Structure formats: C-alpha cells, structure tokens
Amino acid sequence: MIPFRKAFMFSSSSWIIPSRGARLPSRCTRTFEDICDCSYCRNYVREIRATYGDVAAYLDKIGIEIEKPFEVIPIGPDNETMFYSGAQYVVIGAADDFMETSIGTVRIVETDSHPVTDIQEEHFVIELSPIYLRWNHEE
Ligand SMILES: [Zn+2]
Predict the structure, then answer these.
(1) How far away, in angstroms, is 38 Cα from ligand 1 center?
(2) Cα of 37 to ligand 1 centre, how many Å?
(3) Which of 36, 75, 76, 128 could form a disulfide with 41 if both were Cys (CB 3.0 to 4.6 A apart)?
C-alpha cells in the first residue's frame, strides 16, 4: 500500500471532491451542489479556514476544500464560541492509504459513523474533531 501522504503527492488527481452525495435534510449535510443553510453550518463555512489554517492546508493537499464539509455536527454555542463535535469530509480513494493524524488540537480520523454517501466509487469519510469556532451570530 502506498502511504497516504505519498499517494496524494504522486497522484493528487485520484483524491478528488465527490461530485455527489446523499442529501439528508434533517441533518447538516451538504452535497457538492448544495450546502446546509442553517446558521451553524454557515458559521462553520465562514470561520473554519481562518481559525484552523493548518488543517485547511492539509485538506487542500488532498484536494478537499475545508469550506465544503460533507457533514457538520454542531453541538451548540457557548457565548462567543461555537462547538462542533466533528466535521466530516468524503475522500475518493482507498481508506487503506489513509493515515490518521493530528494537526494542532484537531484529530483527523477515518469514520464509519456518517450519513449514506450514495457514492459508487471507492471512498471513505474522514472526521475532524473537535472544532471550536467564533460564533458569529450577528449576521
Ligand atoms: Zn446545518
């Protein structure tokens, strides 16, 4: 097996954002075409890159935009901070090539606990956690 890091270094085209995914309206799930419009998800999209630049850079390397999570798991705001227990992203490719890692305070692991992706190609889901963002509720 090619280690995950080497896999995307040598063949970044095989690590792409999926063009489709499940849409589960009762959850904070996005597809490539559509993003959840709830205030928690919009806050995530607005704040995530500025807050977790190193994580964004890591995802950029594997062809994933941090602003386009497959699913966000919001827990709730506490004063000016919004806590998300996790954010999930679909990665096209073989999970065997993925190595779990930590970037700063954020753990990045493969997870089987996610909505149905409805993607036929070989893929897996990674989860970032925990995520604490500025709670910008004054839009
Ligand atoms: Zn949402």
Answers:
(1) 4
(2) 6
(3) 36
What DSSP assignment string belongs to 56-106? Answer: HHHHHHTT--TT--SEEEEEEEETTEEEEEEEEEEEES-GGG---EEETTE
Query: Ligand 1 centroid vs 40 CA: distance in angstroms?
Result: 6
Specify the DSSP class assigned to residue 29: B
How far are the Cα atoms of 15, 48, 120, 132 from residue 72, in angstroms, in the given order? 21, 11, 22, 12
C-alpha 22 – ligand 1 centre gap (Å):
14
Give pLDDT, residue 15. 40
Distance from the alpha carbon of residue 19 to the mean position of ligand 1, in angstroms = 19
The Cα–Cα gap between 125 and 131 comes to: 17
Q: Which pTM value belongs to this model? A: 0.76
